[in-house]
Design a protein that fits this description.
Keywords: Membrane, Transmembrane, Transmembrane helix. By secondary structure, this protein is mostly helical. The chain contains three helices and no strands. It has one domain (about 1-70). It has helices at about 1-10, 15-20, 25-70. The longest helix has about 45 residues, at about 25-70.
């Protein structure tokens, strides 16, 4: 990802290192880890949203079925 791209850029052109001296490989690895963690967090969040939506749909369906059963004509 971003960390791999920047690492490859530093490997190919050593003149980039003095321009951004605080960006060493350790920082790039940490950035990659943070990006992966955010990707994982958003994936888990999306899964919970989908499951909660399904739960609401099932609850509404069951509620309507019960209402239909209670108030049968």
């Amino acid at each position: 990802m971003l960390a791999d791209f920047l690492t490859e850029a530093f490997d190919e052109d050593p003149d980039l290192e003095p321009v951004i001296p605080h960006f060493n490989h350790k920082h790039l690895d940490q950035m990659g880890t943070i990006i992966k963690a955010f990707n994982y967090y958003f994936f888990v969040l999306a899964a919970f949203v989908v499951l909660y939506t399904i739960k609401l749909a099932v609850a509404a369906h069951v509620g309507l079925m019960l209402l239909g059963w209670v108030f049968q004509a």
